[in-house]
Amino acid sequence: MQQQKQQTQQMQQQYKKNHIQTYIAKTVAKRILLVSSEDDVNLALKMALEEEQEQDDDYKSSFKVDSFNNPILALKNFKNGSYDLVIIDIVMPQIDGFELSEKIRKIDDKVKICFLTAGGVPGKVRFDTPRGGYQDRFIRLPIENEVLIQQIGKIIIRS
Questions:
Q1: Is the dihedral of CA 94, 30, 131, 148 positive or negative?
Q2: Predicted TM-score (pTM) of this structure
Q3: By the 8 A CB rule, do 134 and 112 touch?
Q4: What are the structural domains, with CATH classification, of the chain?
């Protein structure tokens, strides 16, 4: 009886492992566009997001981050359906984060957008829901890597 129980447990563990490996093989890293005029912010966030995140013993999730410090260049390179999430710094030269988000929404009205802010959220922020049905979110800097990963994961999965 004990031997049969062990065999059943081993079969269940093998099934779980095979199922997880199949899931991993089908899972593609989530793509993120990061736009901040601050090179150090870009580098720190890119490194934090691209570091593999352990979910359990057999599964790791990851993000693929394209970062730009020039919002105009980011806009020129943006293509419909290319990203799961766009993270935009609010305060930038040439074009601010809200203007950039409006231009990006004209290209892809369903893309999820999250704003970075080192201070309070400026008064001109609208809390309406765009046509795509996604409400924009804000991440206040500085932020711990673990908290950042959790917030980004929730934004990508929830919306």
A1: negative
A2: 0.70
A3: yes
A4: 28-158 (3.40.50.2300)
Structure tokens at 134: 């996604």
For 9-28, give one letter per residue: b (16+ CB within 10 A) or e.
eeeeeeeeeeeeeeeeeeee
CA-nearest of 30, 148, 159, 35 to 86 is 35
- Vertex 74, ends 122 and 67: CA angle to 5°? 85
**What pLDDT band is residue 3 in, cutting at 50, 70 and 90?**
confident
Tens of pLDDT along 61-113? 578 999 999 999 999 999 999 999 999 999 998 899 999 999 999 999 999 99
What are 132's two structure tokens?
């795509």
Cα angle for residues 129, 132, 135 (degrees, 5° grid)? 35
Q: Quick one: tokens of 15?
A: 């099934």
11-34 pLDDT per residue, tens: 777 766 555 444 444 456 789 999
Any idea of the CA torsion for 99, 100, 105, 106, to the nearest 10 degrees? 80
What pLDDT shows up at residue 61? 57
